[in-house]
Each structure stands twice: as structure tokens, then as C-alpha cells.
Amino acid sequence: MTLTLRYMHPGDVPAVVEIDAQSFPDPWSMRSYMFEINESRISHMCSLILSDVAIPAPEPRLIDRLLRRKSPPVPSEMLAAYGGLWCIAEEAHISTIATHPHLRGRGYGEIALAGMLLRAIALHAEYVVLEVRVSNRVAQNLYHKYGFVTVDVTRKYYRDGEDAFLMRVELTNPASVEVIQTLYAQLQARVPFTDDYSRVSHPRLGV
Fold first, then answer.
1. pTM confidence score
2. DSSP state of 202
3. Domain 2-196 homologous superfamily, CATH
4. Which residues pair with 44 in a beta bridge?
């Protein structure tokens, strides 16, 4: 089993949309993700791919048994987590982040977060902001771990009326950058993965 963090491909989008729908009450559309990948000038979307997955083979389908043919091959990789980063001049904004519901609690979402923070540093952003539901304590704890602080509350930010905390981490502060880099190194030692995203140029924009 191997993990690879890389830029999101169009082929990832169906799986991304499926996880999005299971994770958020107001998920993005497939068209939105395609725009982020293929057209946006500010978007740096990432995917964490779990390869060589031990997935048990399904029972042969009835039609396959009747026609004496093999069942479709079992996929050997799956989308474990994904995230979206917008970079506009000095500001970086984490637009979305989620983990496959069956793979939560393994550090995969943290890999996406740490990768996006390093990507923001590589793009010379001065700070990173994000919004998080006031009820989502698990996510808030992770963000605090990486140096984010709550700077504001946006009332009724979400469609269901829940408020959002606006959180921010300063990248012009060397101590903040050192914390992020140290946590990233510790994470990579704990959950080994290949990073083909944070220090790699955007495949379309070349930055």
C-alpha cells in the first residue's frame, strides 16, 4: 500500500464529488471541480491517492457467469483525501478539504492540509485563511495544531444557517513556518507518503 499526494486530475473528480456529497450538506458540483482543475488561474487542487489497495474481489455477476466471461477488474487505487487551495497575490485560501468516510482517523486529511500549507509557502503567500463550522471541533483542533488562530466569526455562513469561524495562519512569521515544516516531517515519518504536490509546479500554470 502506497500513498501519493499530487495535483488533482480530471479523472479524480467523480470520486471527489462522491466524497464531497458524503461529507458536506452543500457539496460542490462536478462542473465546479472541473473548472478548478482546467480553467482557474488561482486554484491548486490536490488528491491523496491510496495505491495497491487490498480490495476483496466481488462475486461474479450473473451476466458474467451466464456468458462465461470474467468480471470487471477490481481497481487497485482509491482517492483517500483531497483539498483545494486558492492563491491570490499574498493570500492563500483553503477552499475545501475532505477524507474518504471509510478512511478517516488515519492522518490522510492532515496530509492534504500540510501539503497545501507547504504549497502556499512555495507560492510565497503571506498567510493562509479558511472557514470552518463552529461545531466542527475535530477540524478546528487540527488547524490549531498547524498554527491557525480564529480571527472572526461569520454569522450564518453555511446554507443551513450555521456560523463559521474564520481562521488564519501567518506565513511571514518564521516560527509559524517552522512549526508547519516540522509537523509535515513528523507526519511523513508516521504515515509515509510521496509528495508530488507541495513543491511541484502546477501542471497547467507552471508555477
1. 0.89
2. -
3. Gcn5-related N-acetyltransferase (GNAT) (3.40.630.30)
4. 85
